Amino acid sequence: MHSTWVRALKLSFQYAVITAALVALQPGRAVAVTLDADVTAFIDEYVSEHSFSRSKLQHWFAQARVQHGILRAMENPTTSSPWHVFRASHVSAARINGGVAYWRRNADMLAKISAESGVPEELLVATVGIESFYGRLTGTSKVFDALVTLAFYYPKRAERFRGELGEFLLLTRELQVDPLQIKGSYAGALGVPQFLPSSYRRYAVDGDGDGKRDLWNHGDALASIANYYKGYGWQTGEPVLVQIEQSTEPVTDEFKTLVERGILPHTTVGAVKRTGASPAFVVADDVKTAVFAAETEAGTRYWMGFNNFYVITRYNRSVNYALAVYELAQELRGLRRSETFD
Residue 139 has what DSSP assignment? Predict the structure, then answer.
């Protein structure tokens, strides 16, 4: 009971801090970062452990501005919409048509990357489509401002974003670029594939052989996405997900328990079937799976998600996101095949 009360108190305090920040940050006001104890400790750490110049770090922080819009966006992510609403905006005619054209333009490069990595071409194209509309929307926020805002003014995820801020500083030093000049998403994601700085440093590769890892370059971006999925355990040729037939009405207590256990595969297809659920196509009973739900216009629908679906959620942990990537990929695959055989 005591631990529950403490967690509730901490959560209330976090919301109070966020609310106070939002009140202070009125639209149109550029609020300077306060060099308080937390910021000073961060600077001390990167001077002592990573040999940054203290004067440079102090200069960069002095130039940073807290972004009230970013705090609001973090509290209301688009991925929290019902699935059918999210799908309508992300698996749209514009993204489908744009994806076919993008695939056509980059066909040789996609075929090569897919053959080397085992990651399907359609998945690479769909990921770029969802993340940055095929490179057209890579973000307009100053990444340093975004990460400073989230690292020091968003308590719920401050630890995570302090890590990303540090990774960003290390990355810009490696790339020999000014951290104040780089633009990306409101959460600090970078380039065509919208990698966070830690993912950029870990998974970005030189896809076109020019000696650089430039995620604003499509060859590097596509090869890096493939490397990311492969790094998280993509299994070539294995299924991603299968919808559960609604005629079975899978609402038993046993089935609900499986849904509540999350999207990391933790059971088997056979065990799911024993609850009365029936997959829309045949999958071997011993394949590991998880069960999840999403809201369609016709009501709640259920899917079995396999290892490869879980891998997609490592890119973005939202089920809506992973469903959108998968469904867009299937649309693109069908159109590309018909285009190829015409």
Answer: -
- 131 annotated active-site: yes
182, 183, 226, 184: which is closest to 203 by C-alpha? 226
Cα Dmax for the chain: 68
One DSSP character per residue, 272-341 reads HHTTT--BSS---TTSEEEEEEEEETTEEEEEEE-HHHHHHHHH---HHHHHHHHHHHHHHHHHHHHHHH
Alpha-carbon distance of 116 to 72, in angstroms, equals 41
How far lies 211's CA from each of 113, 208, 214, in Å? 17, 8, 9
**DSSP secondary structure code for residue 134 in this structure:** T
CA distance 301 to 286: 23
Question: Averaged over 191-198, what is the pLDDT?
Answer: 98
Identify the pLDDT of residue 30.
Answer: 63
Please give the backbone phi and psi of residue 14, each rounded to the nearest 5 degrees, phi first: -60, -45
- Which residues partner with 31 through β-bridges? 66
Q: Who's near 104: CB < 8 A, 6+ residues apart? A: 339
- Phi and psi, residue 155, nearest 5°: -55, -35
Q: Higher confidence at residue 26 or residue 90? A: 90
Nearest to 99 by CA among 54, 68, 136, 56: 136
Structure-token match 């401050």, residue found: 158
CA distances to 55, 225, 234 from 231, in Å: 37, 10, 7
Tokens 């997609």 correspond to what residue? 312
Look up the pTM and report it. Answer: 0.89
131, 164, 167, 331: which one is catalytic?
Answer: 131
- Tell me how far apart the alpha carbons of residues 98 and 106 are, in angstroms, rounded to a whole number: 12
Span 111-136, pLDDT tens digits: 999 999 999 999 999 999 999 999 99
Q: Which two tokens stand for residue 175?
A: 């790339």
